[in-house]
Amino acid sequence: xxxxxxxxxxxxxxxxxxxxTLLLAGFVGREALSQPxxxxxxxxxEDAGIDAEGLLRTPLSVGIHMPDGExxxxxGLVRSxxxxxxxxxxxxxxxxxxPWLWFLSLTRxxxxxxxxxxxxxxxxxxxxxxxxxxxxxxxxxxAPREYCVQYRETDLNFVSxxxxxEGIFYFFEHTxxxxxxxxxxxxxxxxxxxxxxxxxxxxxxxxxxxxxxxxQDLSVHTGAIALADYDxxxxxLELRSALGDDEPNELYDYHHSQFTELADGxxxxxxxxxxxxxTRNAIQGRSTCRGFxxxxxxxxxxxxxxxxxxxxxxxEVRHRARSGSFVSGGEPEKLDYQNDFLGIPHGTPYRPPxxxxxxxxxxxxxxRVVGPSGEKIYVDEYxxxxxxxxxxxxxxxxxxxxxxxxxxxxxAGNNWGGMFIxxxxxxxxxDFLDGDPDRPLITGRVYNDEQMPPQSLPANHDKxxxxxxxxxxxxxxxxxxxxxxxxxxxxxxxxxxxxxSIKWRSNSDLYEIMKGEKGIVTxxxxxxxxxGFKTSVDLGGSLSLFAGYKFDxxxxxxxxxxxxPSAKVSAGEEYQWKLSGFSNHVKDSARLHSDDSVLLIGxxxxxxxxxxxxxxxxxxxxxxxRPGFEAATQAKAAWAVAISTLIGxxxxxxxxVASDIFTFRDGDEGDxxxxxxxxxxxxMVGLGAIDAGVTAxxxxxxxxxxxxxxxxxxxxxxxxxxxxxxxxxxxxxxxGAPGGAGNIPMNAPMASLALTGMGSANVEAxxxxxxxxxxxxxxxxxxxxxxxxxxxAIDAKNIVKIKGNSLxxxx
Length: 811
Prior knowledge:
Number of helices: 8
Oligomer: single chain
Shape: rod-shaped
CATH architecture of the domain at 11-100: Roll
Mean pLDDT: 79
């Protein structure tokens, strides 16, 4: 290829091929701040068979000779190469050259960054592709982002939108060997190659660096920026930031959870306002300045408007260059070059436009709940959980898979509402606020083949169930004919079932606590409560039990009722207690009140005691029951004890002798023979004056009277009764009819004592009145004392005197 060369050409190209294999005939290109540049090269070659595949992704450098002899370089990588036909003896080729950054547009990914700042995220993405030709020239500190998602977007779009959000722009610096990406947030640039000052000339000569055209437009812009946000961790904090002048137009935007501090909001508002103002006073023009390069500045001089004479930052440059012949050894060709440019006054804060759009998640997704190894439930104080998205191929399935994700509940209030926490391994439905992948929100749960419903389907399609992993469950069963609600816990197999009937069961304790004023239980027919060992009812206020017909309480062993200040039991007609034993202790005083009468009965059958109190009287009655008690035995005992003295005879009979005397059989009649029937009376004291015949007559009379009493009272039972009424006091003893306490005696009392309020006292006895004392005195007001009885016995240890002024009568 010695016949063709770029040695004397004003523009040239250098590739990985041998020198002058490819010749640069011309190019067009565009470069702009915060955008990858693009050069389209028109190439010639004597070689018609250049391998295009071998040139792709290889470095390529374009050289532009400056008027002062320097060479300006534009370096890049070949993204396309192709044949365009023959141009005379040479083959025409076309190549596109881009920076390495452009290749990030070929990669799309889904991944999550947590706790990382934007510069660190960008660096990680670049280094992940093996690129290191970049440099950060930042003046601000950038806080880590809690959660940042690249979702189904190219790496270039992802990086670009993060930089645009933070107000960071970039440009490229070129050398023959490579190019470097420069990222900065401050528009202080270096000067372009070429003259330090440029003038505007309408008819510039070829080869001169001049501005041929210049336009300056002032445009209306947004004069104020207002931003608002909301942070659920500080829900009452009003996150609003506003910046701007008195312009009538305000741009308001809502950023959900983009900033959580007012200072951050102010910074984002300032970036947005600077973005709007940066191109408000822009200039546009055309020049032959081969050194114009985006990210650099130039100075305008000698303009007819003095305010235009200042430095300008180049935002965009569009190049067009054409060279001539490539014949080796020929005269240097002239360069046909010009460009169109866009600039702003240097020093104007520059923020890149928001060109890169944030992806929107269309609809819901599902994810799996994750946590540390071995954890069944992993949750924070806000009921948030961590999830692993199925599209996340880089993150692990652990507690670092995502940010804390809020969980939607059926209710959520201040310490009230629902709380159903997804467990590790559950598949959940995730929505995204405003479709923002950085703002996930769990809205539901779903089953899968590894986590099936709690009951088999479709067999249980009539049931609505809430059941946790332990087995606690609430079942709403709408099965026709068996509709019911079931609440069950496997702990002690506790169960509550509400349907046609109400059932509850527990293998442990049962507690029912009501803090209202009252609790009401209404039952149709009956209530049965079965308790194995012990029942305790603890009431803070009162307990009221009402039975419409009957209230029964049955106790197998013991009944205890304890009351504080008072206890009251009332019944409409009758109140009965039936107990084997009863004991009642009153500390101070006791009172039993009845409007009519009170009857107390002790014992049963023929052995009972009675106390009856009414408005008219108080009666005490006792009737002991003695099985086999014969009337003869009663007569024997009564007479043997009661009659021990023969009245008026001064004769004392011992107890054993009296018992022998008065032992008789039914059928004994007539007068008794003293010597034949009763034996010797030698034991009598003082019989000298009375013969045995007289004694026999007296004893026969006594025995006959005993037989009369015996026949009248046979098969009866002894009664004792004490009565107090308006007449006075009366005590009685008798043989009453069988049938238990409370019966009226059959016959008149056999012994009685009556005291009346009229001053009289009456003592009557069928058998005996026995008065025993060291001294017995009977005295009447009229000097008269009468003693009338079938038998009068006076027993004294010393002296018995019966004295009367006119008459002493015995019998």
